[in-house]
């Protein structure tokens, strides 16, 4: 497949005014929103936009999520298994997936409490993927979130089982802890999460990532990996939040598309940071992807175009929020910029 970035006039690609032929050559997450109206400017939210502080919002939501995760995985027997689960699950993190789940629920008018179980479940699944991703049989990474990776701290066997336990617990947690939400919506959320983790979701991205290591892959393969390995769980977190919040099918779809753009954005930025930051700044091994021969966005299209792509994805994510209540949309709008501007 021809490279979907090279050969597109810069003014057409990055302004959103590409021709139909050019749009077909754009990465899917960019193409999906390229013809939609741009999001309402933040000025339309008036004083609310000026007063909204994402850092405080994220800190508050993170505290609530951390407390819920702590309650969800208490110390039990066998102690080593639970120690391993808690070691990775409660490690300091950005909590982007659970925050997106909570914000998506509130976006459609639902209460935070309705989405907390799916928020916790999305983080459990994400942490499982990190534990397994670090194993010697996959990425063989010694660091995660600034600490020894789980298998370094507890051994490979325990790390493998801790990941298995977390993903199983995630489904149980949604099924048994979601209250005040119709059963059919809880079932839809469980189905959404299962799809995100299965052979058409994260696992598909992971196996493609393994098979493509050291290979010269194009943007189509690279995008498939990231939309499944990283983006699919972000999509599921957002969709589940909107589902249990009582959102319409159209609202759930728009939130899903927003998260799809943010998911790819997250990985594009991750690739950029891998070549521009140190291990100390990242809290994990810097330059490892490039050194291992993996294809990354900066390697494939150059650092400048990767940075341009990140900005395009932010705009497209914002476009999906057009039409929602401006104040309720603020957290998700600002969160897209937070992902783009992060430093680790």
From TrEMBL:
Gene3D superfamilies in the cross-refs: Farnesyl Diphosphate Synthase
SUPFAM superfamilies with a match to the protein in the record: Terpenoid synthases
Pfam family, one: polyprenyl_synt
Organism expressing this protein natively: Musa acuminata subsp. malaccensis (Wild banana)
Top-level taxon in the UniProt lineage: Eukaryota
GO MF, any single term: metal ion binding
Entry protein name: (wild Malaysian banana) hypothetical protein
GO cellular component, one term: cytoplasm
Keywords carried by this UniProt record: Isoprene biosynthesis, Magnesium, Metal-binding, Transferase
Pathway: Isoprenoid biosynthesis
Similarity section: Belongs to the FPP/GGPP synthase family.
NCBIfam families assigned to the protein according to its UniProt record, in alphabetical order: FPPsyn
One GO biological process term: isoprenoid biosynthetic process
Cofactors required: Mg(2+)
